[in-house]
Batch of 2 targets.
Target 1
Amino acid sequence: MSTTIPTTERPTFAPRVRRLTLKRRRQLSGVLFALPAIALVVCFIGIPIGQAVYYSFTQWNGLTSTWIGPSTWTQAFHNTNLWTALRNNGLLLLSVPFALALPLGIAVLLHQRVAGWRIFRSIYFLPTAISWVVLGLVAERFFAYQGTLNSIIHALGFSHVSTNMLGYESEALIALGITFVFTMIGTNTMLFLTGLATLDPSLEEAARIDGAGRWRIFRSITLPHLSRFIQLAFVMTVIALFSALFSLIFVMTGGGPGYATTTMEYLIYETGFNQGDFGTAALYGLILFVITGIVGVVQLRLIGSNE
Amino acid sequence: MKKPRRTGRWILFGAMVVVAIVMLYPFWVMIITSLKSESQFLSGGGFSWLSWSNLTSVIPVGQEVLSSTIVCSSSILIILCVGLPAGFAFSKLRFRMSTVVFLVIVSAMMVPLQAILMPEFVNVTRLHLTGGYLGAILVYASLGTPFSVFLFTTYFRGVPDELIEAGIVDGLGYFGALWRLVLPIAVPAIATVTVLQFIQIWDDLLVGLLFIQNTSERPITVGLAVLAAGRTTSIPELMAGSIISALPAMLVYLGFQRYLVKGLTMGIDR
């Protein structure tokens, strides 16, 4: 274009105009290309967050809402169900160390490259592909009175002992926690194995030559190297704990016995769809939003810190 | 690396076999239980094809698998069509405030559906989208979009600017550059998004349960969960249905394992 303009007239101006329009065209295309994604996220995630804030101050059954004000919040915090759910989530946090330590052990095991390790790797990750609905169904059979757990106990010689963990308020949450650990093994092992693959083998070699034992090498070289991966796995596991247990609970216990296995996310579903109290459910949603938000900020910082 | 002593290797191998048994346990339970009739299941012994031959009359697996396929493929198509241009824009066609907008979209990744479940449900119901698949598809698409935008943006950052600029100078235009230059390069990223979202959406319960009102249009995961929670369906038939529901996701996983790993470790493994 610039070559067609007679160079005698405005030799410096023409290219500048062209560059400006090009820049504007690029920006315009950028906005245009980003718009559908922005619209989708705003309409289905952004706006509902705002609505949740509004509805948390109302009495709402899904059709009509009446403004109540901040007293809805004080009321909610006097509700024992909320505290039970928060306590259940808190207790389930105790399973997180297991959901990290077991995959770490398995990843180290796989990293030894024993014959057939690739096949073992595929087997270990296989449950990750299937739905937590299905895994919950299987777990329900495992813990049932006539299930695998009791068969194992009887086979070990304790024929007079029988468990029915999902049937008792004191034990159902433990069973849910164990199932949760199992469902997280594949993902976390995958993460740790990726971390181990980036470890420079010559480091371990050098330590070994210096006379360091296996445990020493693991503690002083492997573990520090994996720290970022462990942090990421920790955050992902905690987020899953607060937002992915729904399928397991729905299939295994329905939140019961009583409210023994009702976590925050299940309480939201239960309050909204079984009790029809949309306002309180929206409020509980905001509490969950804040909790996962805090964990999410930690994760963003972890991901962002290497850019 | 020094080879551990022989006994050490056998102990390692033994440990790996034990872990393998634990991880294969769900599949073993599903297969063994599905090969029993209801009475054989209760009494413990025996073998029968009954639950398989009865399966379609108890659980409409054909219809449910079809529903799952429609919902999955439509959602993924939207996620790709929306995420790919946005990733291109945020990495190469930056506009005013684009970094802020990008960060806002990425942080939407942290919002669990349960947190906004009530307004979302009422909105989608009011728009009369829960009658068919559209409501669920849009919810899945919007939940998957932040991750795909994040993945495409980080992926395109690795593509040299000169390549795009050369295309523009050659008169492709931005849409042409997206279609002819960016899309072919993005195939691995597209595969990663597709595999991850497929497994996520195929295995999901909550959205399908609430945003698809007609029981005849239920995806298979939802169908199974509802029957399981009802506690009236025979366990062997439920297990047979579980196998059907697990197969597609397992096949996708086994076929595209490396893309799955890439997606899960996204952002840290670079």
Note: Chain B has a mean pLDDT of 87.
Target 2
Amino acid sequence: MARINSPEELAKVRHDVLAKRDPKAPRMSICAGTGCLASGASQVVAAAEQEIEQQGLKGSVELRGTGCHGFCERGPIIVMAPEETCYLQVTPEDVPEIVSQTLREKKVVERLLYVDPTTGEKVPNESDIPFYKNQERLVFGPNRKIDPRSIEDYLAIGGYEALAKALFEMTPEQVIGEVKEANLRGRGGGGFPAGIKWEAARNAPGDPKYVIVNCDEGDPGAYMDRSLMEGNPFSVLEGLLIGAYAIGAQEGYVYIRQEYPLAVENLGIAIEKAEQYGLLGKDVLGSGFDFNIKVHRGAGAFVCGEETALLMSLEGKVGEPRPRPPYPAVSGLWGKPTNINNVETWATIPLIVNRGGSAFASIGTEGSKGTKIFSLVGKITNTGLVEVPMGITLRDIVYKIGGGIPGGKKFKAVQTGGPSGGCIPEERLDLKVDFDELTKAGSMMGSGGMIVMDEDTCMVDVARYFINFLTDESCGKCVPCREGLRQMQKILTRFTEGKGKESDIEVLEGLAEVAQEASLCALGKTGPNPFLSTFRYFRDEYEAHIKEKRCPALSCKALIATIIDPEKCKACMLCLKACPEGAIDGGKKKIHIIDQEKCTNCGTCLEVCPSRFDAVRKISGEPVPPPIPEAQRMIVKKAKRNVT
Amino acid sequence: MTEFLLQIDGKEVKARSGMTVLEAAQSAGIAIPTLCHHEKLAPFGGCRLCIVEARGQGWTKLVVSCVHPVEEELVIKTRSEKIDRIRRGLLELLLAHAPHAPVLEEMAREYGADKNRFEPGASFCIHCGLCVRYCAEVKKKNAIGFIDRGIRKEISFIPEIASQECDDCKECFPLCPTSYLQAAYVLTKSLAFPSKS
Amino acid sequence: MDIERIDQIIDRHQGEASSLIQVLLDIQSENHWLPKLALSRVSEKLQVELSRIRHIATFYKAFSLVPKGRHEVHICMGTACHVRGATRVLDKVQEFTGLKPGETDLELKFSLETVNCLGCCALGPVMEINGKTHGKLSPGQAADVLGGYE
């Protein structure tokens, strides 16, 4: 296809693409995001290609590997259009049946459908599945309709309409006006109003100006940006270009983690194609506006997600943050006015330009507008990426969409905001998801990671885990973070080892204040949050660890003992054979006993003991019961009752 | 260059735009404790000891004076219960590494810092960066640099350069508050300098 | 790695000093580690002080100043994986390979690293080897996967 040199040509190209496609023709969309690929999606795609050819259907079926659909727990996923039939956990062996039954005979393959856990009914339609039904997939939804490497697919769904509108029908100030009216707040964690940042960069003296995509998604458990960049890189590019036009920047960077190889690849292909079609580079769409992008890979430093550390890294230096003021909008990359926004923020821009800022602002709460993509992970039935309107309750996310806690376990907390955030307990589950509400509850929205924890999760260990992460990732420049978080780490580790002292809490609170008030950047300033929030809501767990050397969740290895209940043990030898330390003594029909000296509390015996016996349990804060006398260890079969 | 007035500890201080709060204070003879600051070097903002309270138009917060730019009508307090508490906390963290450093001991007395609050740290480098920055910005030799990050961050001489430059220079030596620099130099010299043949 | 190859990589980035990290990433990717020669050559050609290059090569975890094994084993210790038992998988892998995170065995077969989030949270616990992701692992399964590598 030739370069597109005007909005009219763009409309024509879009029209031609659509004309070649029969809207009634069957479409098979197979999720090819990293998660599904790890579950074998590429073999499913290959099997589908082969089967379609073999069954003589090639040319009459649109088959595509798409971006991430979001229902990661149940991948690989196939959605059959136009019926919107959704098949889950598809294997290559299932493909021939899908092709012959569904493609040819329009019949549904029942066994691959979602089954509603409460009613037992099968749910054939994607949009009726509870996981999807309660979402509002404005930004993430297009992923499942497009091959991320196909610019035609992006054009077919209306891609680049927003760019044409911005470049030819709006002034830069009008674009900023829409973004301000939308009250789009940064989706990367800061939550700062994007429109105001854009305006500051536009008004700041100096040139050249820069716009940057922050794809250094580092919060463990969060992978929204990766899936957006993998699944719909064109939407990010389009948003970036609109922003560049609004701000007056002609150069842009995408800072992307090198740990995201598929995203790096798909982004590179998207840039190449956009350049070919005149949608990037010189004289975009014939508007006279030039804009060039460079891709810069991160090299493994969480702190580079912080915007000034990111700038340092772009300048070829170590990722040590800079003091602010001055802010990047005034003095950023190479000291020039720079606007940095998160991937999801940029990807939301075309939507705002197309529908208008007030339409976007009609969704959500007073202070938080629009939708947000969250990664719902951890102890949850429906793990995956979900997009919901701001203002939905945490309870609805966890139960209506997430399907609650698996294994019959009890919900304990949901951690939001990554290492800068905090844990929200059960009594606050009716909290409306909103930037300010989450902050008031002692957590924060963050980039969107939502990690669900159950009764088996030790909240002291959670605090230790996050501080551990941060001390590893700290750049080390300032004392409060480098030294202060380090001392917090030592204390929290001692708690989990049963070596805590009551005076430690005051020390922790003092260190927290120093870090919050005096750190150079947000990593240090928010570092104490996981401790502060778990201490706020789960003080009893801290007290148990410190005063009683007891771990209520039965998780901290140094504070638990694993024992076999002699009343329940049937001496089946399964745990004996599985124990990696050879710590179980016993034999066939001889009740097993764990040698506490050798036991490392690895939990293997607990896992392998058949559930009908349920003989292994963990105890904490109480002495190990003495073993039963040798004489009583042999299991004698009870005599059978005569049945006459 | 705009000139304007700020208030520091109740005193009116003249400042020019482009100055930092620390520079303005020093020009008026008002003392603010520092550790990683040096008049020949670009501000570092690593130790955070020069933290002060700043009140501007509708906001009050703690700012690090060696890097915070002056603004019209800024009101600065260099001591308060909170500021002293934070400085004491910072000193106690540093004293864990270098309990006998004279400059830290002196400040510890002033702020009531307990050198035994935390367990002794492994190394007595306090990461003020004076050595690295002096060699880079003043001597422009870069014979010494930082390596790694976080608590694993260290200063490290580059043997090939240090063996050529340092013997005749050593201008950074008096800058080190803890003498860790001298120790590191001696160690590097004996273990890693290329042999002269 | 010879000087010619290093120079080619530097030239590919048009010899710009700001591309320093990208150049080092390319060298690391091809060579699996950054030899001293590479650092000094990059310093010379990009006119960047060696002290900054050494800091960058040690600050960013993508780089290694020592040779790595043929198979780089990454165990995800992200929050979601942690909550699903990643520590036990790590213990088993440490036992199997005899390595602690950051170490490489003497035959240069395996290098073990923990990483902070691979973004496959639905599949936790996750282990990645040579770009291939293995999910929903139990400690035993992790050992089996490793056994399959030559």
Note: The CA atoms of residues 4 and 32 of chain C lie 17 Å apart.
